[in-house]
Amino acid sequence: MPVLVASDLDRTLIYSSAALALTMPDARAPRLLCVEVHESKPLSYMTETAAQLLTDLGDAAVFVPTTTRTRKQYQRINLPGPPPKYAICANGGHLLVDGVTDADWHAGVQARLAAECAPLAEVGEHLMRSADPAWVRKHRVAEDLFAYLVVERELLPEEWVKELAVWAENRGWTVSLQGRKIYAVPQPLTKSAAVREIARRTGANLTLAAGDSLLDADLLLAADRGWRPGHGELADTGWAVPEVAALPERGVLAGERIVREFLRATRTATP
What we know:
With about 270 residues, the chain is of the alpha/beta class. It has helices at about 50-60, 70-75, 105-115, 120-130, 160-170, 190-200, 215-220, 235, 250-270, and strands spanning about 5, 15, 30-40, 40-45, 60-65, 85-90, 95, 100, 135-140, 145-150, 175-180, 180-185, 205-210, 225-230, 245. The strands form 4 sheets. The chain has a 5-stranded parallel β-sheet, with helices on both faces.
């Protein structure tokens, strides 16, 4: 029976230059591999050691990249190792099989959203109306499923985020602050639902997961074992459950530790 490994990407496995957290002396910094280029510029990295570990993991388990990124944003990433058969994009809104959207899955997600929460148009309008242009840099709608803002973090009022979270919760939506992005995501739009579907299809009897943000909490709770890095929304709020290990590492070294833990747990479970 295969082991399924579902991992968030940004600030869990891969890191922008701003998120690397290279606090050690320069001479001791790890060698880095660029895994994403955007508009001819390097954008995301992992350590070379993590890259080798991920290659080994891809040979030993069903590795499923599990991200809030849109399909287009995900497809910019060039992870080491065998190409994943399955991937989850748009926080579970799209289940990719060999790089192609599963249309039946997506239709089912859309039906659940229509039945269980306020429409995207209402939430997007509220974001536009309530956010201050002084600290908002971009308004975005992702895959016609959820919305997010890119903000100047140092100017962002904490009270505004809290008020938005209460407003959204009353309408069946979740708010998550990740770096310079504020996400508003429908509560039924979850990574965990898509991971359960892949576990059903593959017959996996063990699911491992990792993530750093509030949008990863349901994924971690759905897994048999999980890990979260020492940075991010979950770490900042002290989120903890017995099945999820809170790692001390921060930045790109946390990503390396997570892949190492995935591989160790996979090898222990596989005869």
